[in-house]
Amino acid sequence: MLGLHQLIAQALILYFALVGVWGVILAIGKKEMNSAYRGALTIGVVLAVVQALVGVGLLLSGGRPGSDLHFLYGVTVILTVPLVASYIAQRKFPRVLAYGLASLFMAGLAIRALTTGQP
Question: I need a labelling partner for 73 at 20 to 30 A (CA). Which of 64, 92, 106, 119 fits?
Fold first, then answer.
């Protein structure tokens, strides 16, 4: 189960990095957020939730991360998209740029979660 947790973590890093670059490129091209990009964000959050569920399984089976900060990074990855959505709802800021930068941020959080999860 630990191997699966690490594999999903690596996938999250790559996935959010790609989604982040995609969002920044869309923003540079002055494109609006489309359903494909919205779907990609949703897939990323769902993958992060699956990662958390596997982590809870590890925790219940007696596993512990190297640092308790691991939990904070994991929860923050899941909460970033909804927080960005609520933050930009009333602002004039390119939505696709906000989500692109947030995805790059989530890739960084996933890297930190991976490094703090090592025993």
Answer: 92
Distance CA 13, CA 109 (A): 8
Closest of 26, 24, 47, 48 to residue 35, by C-alpha: 26
Under a CB-based contact definition with an 8 Å cutoff, are residues 33 and 93 in contact?
Answer: no
- 5-60 pLDDT, tens digit per residue, is 999 999 999 999 999 999 999 999 999 999 999 999 999 999 999 999 999 999 99
Q: How many whole angstroms separate alpha carbon 91 and alpha carbon 53?
A: 34
| Helices marked H in 29-94 | 35-60, 69-88
- pTM attached to this predicted model: 0.91
